[in-house]
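Question (not urgent): is this output format expected?
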Amino acid sequence: MWKRLSLRARIFLILTALVLTALGGGLVTVWHTRAMDSLLTSLIDKNVASFQAAGELETALVRQKGFPTYYFLDGNPEWLEELAKYQKDFQEWFQKARKLAYTEAMGEILNQIEAQYQHYVDSRAQVIKLYQEGKRQAGAQLHKAVRRQFVELYNLCERYKLIHEYTISRARTESQARARFLNTLALVVMPGVAVLGVLLAYILIKQILEPIRKLALETASAPRKAPPADEVTALSQRVYSLIEDVDQAQNQLSRSQEHLLQSEKWAMVGKLAAGVAHSIRNPLTSVNMRLFSMKRTLELSDSQKEDFEVISEEIRHIDAIVRNFLDFSRPPKLKMQKISFSDVVDSALILLRQRLGYFGVRVEVKRKKRLPETWADPEQLKEVLANLLLNACEAMTRGGVIVIQEGKGQVAPLGRVAFLRVTDNGPGIPVSIQDKVFQPFFSSKEEGTGLGLSIAARIVEEHGGWVDLKSKEGHGASFIITLPLKEDQAWAPS
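Got this back:
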């Protein structure tokens, strides 16, 4: 039957098969991409937010642990005030978790948590009342039951978090199953496409190109009837060019799809990492509370006190790393108010007075007159200035002088601006890394997180300004903060 078909029909059938194969592959790819997009969007928009709320709910519960014991030990009413504050935090996060719950199972566990928490709060209040009335033995007996209630309540919170982990795991399994299906389909289709391509090439060579070549050779002796000498060559070059263009387009499409999927995965990983960072702070808070309580109640030797200080310092270092990561993973929420940048400089120096003295650093402020007031977030700007000052102190290992120079002027396109130039007389920054210091996670210090300058630059950018670096190796470094001076708050980012 194949031999009975005309050349046009053969080429048409093969081209139709190739087009349908390519179209089917494209539709499957589009379907897979849309399904992955829907899956990732649902996972990120719903489950990650709800997972973070579940983590904060557990944190708020853990922070309430131990306060009746502390009150039992020293009778200090400040423990009860702290307990009331964390109890309020738990209620707020519970309401958020209730709003974000989107399955019946989540709603049921939240109902159980609500009921058991109310019972736990009532029992705990009875324990505190007994302690206040001086009935310490009765209070201690009831306190044991309250601890069991806390464990049950904590397990419920853990179950609520496990629901979200199960949803994420199920989404991952779904994604892998779809990827395997797409790979299998590609493995099945590719040989068929190869066979069709070989068949089409055979027809083109044997039934089109060879007759054209023979025709050119046969008519070569007839000058008037001979075709142009480069017809076959031009046709061959055109075919090869088209094939190369198709290969390049397919490779570019494949790379674009891979980059898109990779970007979506990194976005999900980033948000999940922020949730993990929140969870890391829970045990840190508990450890800090335990250390504080033990330090107040135990009689320690000098070496033990030194051990406590080392442990506390390391915990503060870990907490700083986690806090920097969280600050970097979410844009700063500015609390705008009308302030002068000169006041920010004074506040930062007061805050860092002891640390500057510890480093043996003297700070000189060059100020002709107080800078005018503008709308800005003083706490965020104080964090920026503190970061620059501490970096300068760490760079000047043997002490030195830091000069803060204030000024104002006109800069396009901002208009009226204020300048803060922080200059140290340290070793300077090598030219090879000057363009990297504001990049996230880049640090020249062994224990640095590489986020301080990145966060500082982003805070200044949120205020509509920028940070510049000028340094010559061996002659110190200067960071210049340029901030706009605005008379109203309409320009401020939300």
